[in-house]
């Protein structure tokens, strides 16, 4: 992949995006390392007040919970609103601290999800977008939704034509209306990330038919459409790209870069707990499921042993509430109340999960389909655990590997000079 370069604006990058996994799984440290190496790293603004509290000892979540404590026992959550000023503060703090540490020739982008509706979809999304630009982010990737109104939310900002703006889609059908709306503001996206059915987390496909699609076909369809309409917009395939050679195949076919994430989940810089990283490394293909427990309405790929599946925790919308729609509704709140009426003592909710609390506690283990191959990228140590990698090792393996080979890291409990090759 090092034989190629991605051009965005006036700059060139190593053609590797590392996706923005929330909540603070794609940490600032991971994104900064990718930028140092010349690629594009993502942070995510998913639950950014929580991220700020953890990183900078702020009290945004506690303040919100205290304000709405009186409503905890109420099934009606419509009154629970985010303080937009405090939300902007959290976003600016997270982004500015990250950007102030950036080194190297790469870039830092932020992943902004439309489905984080936060009981006021338009206002809370606009607040996050504007605050990210105010804080100096290099680029914004619009994800988890069609984003038909997002360009309008940013159009009056002085950096609207300066910051890189991209969108994640899973089909040409989703891309067309976005481009049509963006053209009204004379601001087409700087890149288009095409996320296929093998990706981790929320999918832009049906829960029953996702396997009928493949990334290469979708990418080729979008490339053909852009060429036919004389639109010179870089296309970034994502989902299931496990080796550098996988990436080269897309670059040779007309893509401008690739987005990867799964292999970075088991790096030292990743925000997942150590125990969870080991669970990813131990996973086998049969452990991977696509289910509909997300209250967003999207199917989601995860490991079936995720400890958050089937639990009946009480919704804590007063503290969090990121999935509440414009009417204050959430499918998990509805499912919880349904089960509570049946049995208020031993509550188990099998069909939905509380994403806010479960993601905050790293209890829903979303993953790309190739997570079961992670064990082939490192060593199993004498004590039975797998050796974690450094982000630089994974990045450079994507950048320089050939013939679908994966370069293993130096084994920590053996001769430091021992480096082996393993077929992917």
Can you describe this structure in just a few lines?
The protein has 13 helices and 15 strands. With 424 residues, the chain is α/β, with parallel strands linked by helices. Helix 2 (48-56) packs across helix 4 and helix 4 packs parallel to helix 5.
Task: Write up what this structure looks like.
By secondary structure, this protein is α/β, with parallel strands linked by helices. The chain has a domain at 6-271: TIM Barrel. It has 13 helices and 15 strands. The strands form four sheets. It has an eight-stranded parallel beta sheet. A hairpin with a 2-residue loop joins strand 1 and strand 2 (11-13). Helix 2 (48-56) crosses helix 4 (84-100) and helix 4 runs parallel beside helix 5. The two termini are 16 Å apart.
């Amino acid at each position: 992949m090092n034989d190629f370069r991605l051009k965005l604006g006036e700059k060139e990058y190593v053609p590797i995006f590392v996706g923005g996994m929330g909540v603070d799984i794609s940490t600032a440290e991971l994104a900064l390392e990718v930028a140092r190496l010349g690629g594009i790293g993502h942070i995510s603004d998913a639950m950014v007040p929580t991220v700020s509290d953890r990183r900078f000892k702020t009290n945004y979540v506690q303040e919100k919970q205290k304000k709405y404590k009186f409503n905890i026992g109420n099934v009606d959550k419509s009154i629970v609103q985010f303080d937009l000023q405090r939300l902007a503060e959290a976003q600016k703090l997270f982004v500015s601290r990250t950007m102030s540490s950036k080194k190297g020739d790469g870039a830092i982008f932020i992943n902004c999800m439309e489905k984080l509706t936060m009981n006021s979809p338009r206002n809370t999304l606009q607040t996050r977008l504007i605050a990210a630009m105010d804080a100096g982010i290099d680029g914004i990737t619009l994800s988890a939704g069609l984003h038909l109104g997002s360009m309008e939310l940013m159009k009056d900002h002085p950096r609207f034509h300066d910051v890189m703006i991209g969108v994640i889609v899973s089909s040409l059908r989703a891309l067309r209306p976005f481009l049509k709306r963006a053209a009204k503001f004379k601001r087409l996206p700087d890149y288009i990330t095409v996320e296929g059915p093998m990706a981790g987390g929320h999918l832009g496909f049906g829960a029953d038919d996702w396997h009928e699609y493949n990334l290469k076909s979708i990418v080729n369809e979008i490339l053909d459409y852009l060429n036919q309409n004389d639109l010179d917009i870089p296309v970034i395939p994502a989902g299931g790209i496990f080796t550098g050679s996988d990436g080269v195949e897309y670059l040779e076919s007309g893509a401008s870069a690739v987005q990867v994430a799964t292999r970075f989940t088991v790096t030292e810089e990743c925000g997942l707990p150590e125990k969870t990283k080991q669970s990813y490394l131990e996973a086998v293909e049969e452990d991977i499921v696509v289910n509909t427990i997300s209250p967003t309405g999207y199917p989601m790929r995860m490991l079936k042993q995720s400890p958050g599946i089937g639990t009946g925790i009480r919704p804590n919308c007063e503290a969090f509430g990121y999935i509440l729609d414009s009417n204050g509704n959430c499918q998990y709140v509805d499912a919880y109340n349904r089960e509570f009426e049946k049995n208020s003592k031993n509550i188990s909710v099998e069909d939905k999960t509380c994403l806010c609390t479960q993601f905050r506690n790293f209890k829903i283990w979303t993953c790309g389909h190739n997570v079961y191959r992670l064990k082939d990228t490192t060593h199993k140590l004498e004590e039975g655990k797998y050796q974690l990698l450094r982000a630089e090792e994974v990045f450079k393996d994507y950048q320089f590997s050939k013939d679908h080979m994966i370069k293993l890291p130096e084994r920590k409990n053996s001769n430091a000079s021992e480096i082996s090759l393993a077929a992917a």
